[in-house]
Amino acid sequence: MPYPEMMVKAMRDDVTRLGVKELRTVEQVDAELANPSGTQLIFINSVCGCAAGAARPALAMALSHSVVPDQVLTVFAGQDLDATARVRSYVSEYQPSSPSAILLRDGEVVHFVHRHMIEGQSPDAIAADLIAAFDRHCSPTMAA
Length: 144
Known about the structure:
Layout (H helix, E strand, L loop, with lengths): L4 H12 L4 E2 L3 H8 L5 E7 L3 H15 L7 E6 L4 H10 L9 E6 L2 E6 L9 H15 L7
């Protein structure tokens, strides 16, 4: 049974206001992940305290870096149950984790930030880990 939408709206907004594309259905997940190219970051959002206190602030910090993935997507665990399960099917070799951040390059997982890597960490430390992964696996964006 999903959480009431009213309960998670502000938590969704914390991520979508960053320009992250929200995937709420299996069809949306498949449209974005079935034929991957380039880099994609998938943020699995959650109602837990470590998402609010560490993961979402870290995501915001990391996305302000000069090198970011080509595409940034999110699903909400505990709310968009089918969409979250579908994302997890694409990365089934990894244990389900909420919150988490999954960096893919051409559909292959190149970096995975599990919940246990978020709990007890500062947003700065988590952002630094994501930024290092972006620098290693993503192409710099050219300004026009």
